[in-house]
Amino acid sequence: MPFVNVRMLEGRTHEQKKKLVKAITDAMVEICDAKPDGTMVVIDDIARDHWGRGGELISERS
User: Fold this and answer.
1) Which residues of 3-17 are buried (b: 16+ CB within 10 A; e: fewer)?
2) Catalytic residues
3) Counting CB atoms within 10 angstroms of each CB, which of 24, 28, 50, 60 has the fewest?
4) Considering the entire predicted model, what is its pTM?
5) 7 Cβ partners below 8 Å, 6+ apart?
6) 29: CB partners within 8 A, 6+ apart
7) CA distance 44 to 18
8) What is the C-alpha to C-alpha distance for residues 62 and 46, in angstroms, rounded to an integer?
9) Which of 12, 32, 13 is nearest to 3 (CA)?
10) pLDDT score of 56
């Protein structure tokens, strides 16, 4: 049973997430012979002020 965790900055639409989950599931089925029913995809939306890069919060970068 594959478990795929996607972490990304918040702001994507419901439709974008739906397409992403479908694409990841299809890839796991095609490449890894996984069963679609057993493939779990979890999306963690991270707030821009909860994510840092280069010593700065993403929310403070210009």
Assistant:
1) eeeeeeeeeeeeeee
2) 2
3) 60
4) 0.88
5) 44, 46
6) 35, 36, 39
7) 13
8) 18
9) 32
10) 95
